[in-house]
Amino acid sequence: MTLTRSRGAGSRAQPYHHGNLRAALLDAAEAELQARGIEGFSLRGVAKRAGVSHAAPAHHFRDANGLLTGLAAEGYRRFIAAQEARQKNATADHMSQLVAAGMGYIDFALAHPALFRLMFSSDRPDHEAPELSAAGAEAFERLIKAIQRVRGVDPLKDKKAMLSVMAAWAIAHGLADLLVAGRMKFLLTLRKSEREAALGQLLRQSLAQWS
Questions:
Q1: Cα separation of 138 and 3, whole Å?
Q2: How many CB atoms lie within 10 A of CB 31?
Q3: How confident is the model over 18-39, as pLDDT tens digits?
Q4: What is the pLDDT of residue 180?
C-alpha cells in the first residue's frame, strides 16, 4: 500500500510504503494511549506517530473508537499470551495452573497499564464488535475451563462453580488493578522475587477458598 508522509512545511509529500499498515497503526495507537491517556487519544496523533497521512487510519478503522476497539482486541491476545507464559513454567496440577494464570493476569497489567485500563475500564472500545467480543470471550472461556478442571464441574451448568469463576476473576483483577494504581505500596517495595512469592501466596490462599 502506498501512502504519503509529510517531510515538513513547504515540502512535497513523499511516497510512504508500509508493509503492514494495520499493525503499525495498532503499535502507534498503544504508544499514543500510553503518552496521552484515553482523554487525549486521537487519530491524528496516531497517524503522526505511525508516520502516515491523517487519512491513512480510515483504511482499517472507521474512527478513533474503532481503532481503540482493535487495540483492545489485540490486548486480549497479549493478555492470554502472558497467562500461557506463566502456565508453561508452573507445575501441572490444576490449582497451580490457575494461580499461574492469575500471575499472568498481573504481569500483563503491570507491563501494559494503559492497555489494561482500556480493556477493562473504558467505554470507548465497542465490546460488541466481533473481533473484540471474540477475544474477550476466549479469555473468559479459559477461566471457565480452569475452574472446571479445579472443581470437576462445568461452571456453565453449576451456579456454585460459576461463583468460583467470578471470585477468581475478582481476585486476580483486584490485585492487578491495585498494583497498577500503586495502592499496594508494601508489595511494590519488595524485591521482585519476594513480591512474586507474596502474590502467588495471596492468589493460592484466596482461590483455595472458592475451589
A1: 35
A2: 15
A3: 568 889 999 999 999 999 999 9
A4: 95
Contact 17, 2 (CB under 8 A): yes
Instruction: For residue 79, give the C-alpha cell.
Output: 493478555
Place of cell 508494601: 186
d(CA 87, CA 49): 35
Cβ(163)–Cβ(121) below 8 Å? no
Mean per-residue pLDDT for 100-119?
A: 97
**Does an H or E element contain 119, and which?**
helix 113-121
d(CA 21, CA 6): 16
Q: Is the pLDDT of residue 13 over 60?
A: no
Distance of CA 143 to the CA centre of its chain: 15
Cβ-based neighbours of 126, under 8 Å, separated by 6 or more:
65, 66, 69, 132
Mean pLDDT confidence for 166-172:
96
Q: How many CA atoms lie within 13 A of 31 on its CB side?
A: 12
**CA end-to-end span of the chain:** 52
Candidates 11, 10, 1; CA nearest to 55 is 1
Q: Which domains does the chain have, with CATH numbers?
A: 2-7+15-61 (1.10.10.60), 65-208 (1.10.357.10)
Q: How many Cα atoms within 13 Å fall on the side-chain side of residue 168?
A: 31
